[in-house]
Amino acid sequence: MFHHALDYRVAYADTDRMGFVYYGNYLALFERTRTELLRANGLAYADLEAAGTAMPVIEAHLNYHAPARYDDVISCYGELTSFKGLRVTVSCRIMLGDKLLVDGYTVLSFIDMATTRPKRIDGELRALFEKLAENKP
Amino acid sequence: MFHHALDYRVAYADTDRMGFVYYGNYLALFERTRTELLRANGLAYADLEAAGTAMPVIEAHLNYHAPARYDDVISCYGELTSFKGLRVTVSCRIMLGDKLLVDGYTVLSFIDMATTRPKRIDGELRALFEKLAENKP
Amino acid sequence: MFHHALDYRVAYADTDRMGFVYYGNYLALFERTRTELLRANGLAYADLEAAGTAMPVIEAHLNYHAPARYDDVISCYGELTSFKGLRVTVSCRIMLGDKLLVDGYTVLSFIDMATTRPKRIDGELRALFEKLAENKP
Amino acid sequence: MFHHALDYRVAYADTDRMGFVYYGNYLALFERTRTELLRANGLAYADLEAAGTAMPVIEAHLNYHAPARYDDVISCYGELTSFKGLRVTVSCRIMLGDKLLVDGYTVLSFIDMATTRPKRIDGELRALFEKLAENKP
Questions:
Q1: Which of A59, B46, D56, D137 sits CB 3.0–4.6 Å from A107 for a disulfide?
Q2: Does the pLDDT at position B134 exceed 90?
Q3: Which domains does chain D possess?
């Protein structure tokens, strides 16, 4: 079940000389989607880092179906598709109205920022990710 | 067989607040790798577009093994791993010395820039991509 | 008289390893400010280009007073401070609440996109820029 | 006296839909120019930060004379034009062969990274910046 995370207005800065959003820039939109998906569920990622835990991306995949253009307002949808203690997979869809432009996913791990070592999360944080992973139909 | 395509000095502009190269920025390095791989084989991608053919990316995949840091000089390697008339797959490896930082691939199609329709390439261009795809051991 | 043009959530993608928004990224915010300032006055910049006129930036100035940080929601204000037939100056202020982070301006010219030559605008477009330039107290 | 700091190949990632390098991206080139200017004079900026001193940009100015295009190899020149204990001004010129594309400057201060307070540099570092500032004709 994909949740609407944010709308984003394409700037000139986002485009390339083909007239479309540069293919690398969608990963920043995937980041914004993850952040707003978590925030909508009560977790500000900035607070997570402030408490010493970071979630680096360890894998990313993107399928480009159709281009976004300058001044388009595109919609970013996200779903936490799996959580397995050490890793989270978040799927993303970038749409222009009903039209799918880009979809894909990122896999994130949890690390202790002090040691940069992998970290198994627990307590409320674990409960949140479990709840999100169960929210799928 | 991966070919050394270019070396790249990491700028402050490339980093994020975790102190590493932002995960989305590697797709620009994948682009530079493709471009230099083609140039080393006699094809300036700019000339291809000037002649009316573009190669948009339709799929991208990245695995993040270790971070690149500010002022690192990282090395970008590429290999054309498959060519099937309408699509090309280019694999990339970003290394810091002997250490693998990021690997992955992009899949590109050929389009006619005037119509934005898919295009089957032929002649010298086709021969070049066939040669590159055969260069693998 | 500065007008509120947009609010912007700082992403990880915008930050650098000092933990702040990278100094070069504010020019994209200056662009967004100009675009929304024009849109609020009835002019979609995309339509202007569709009609054959572009407004390239010919000069930019930025003063950095304080840094924006990850996840800050910063506010962008703009004012058209001068219009002289061939050139427009737009001043920008980036604020975090009441705190001034960055201010500066960009100077833009008008060009005919077909010829890339400077162009003197007239009619409704000229009237719009004259009105905006007069809107100052 | 401007010193050649580096050459830079324009990537697709650097361009915008007008077909030129996006105006905001030149500040990353100004950064690279400063870094290589210092390195050529024996100072790796990364070492400066490792020793606890950072040089944030407090002012930037750019004049856009002509556009850089995809695949251009542009040359970046820098000059330390003034040093006054707490502030350094570095002028930059971005050229395509003999043609001036962009020039401008950045003003940087010195801060103690632990306290983020302004810092008056001394010793070898001060001597280096004084020497660079005197190198002008």
A1: A59
A2: no
A3: 3-134 (3.10.129.10)
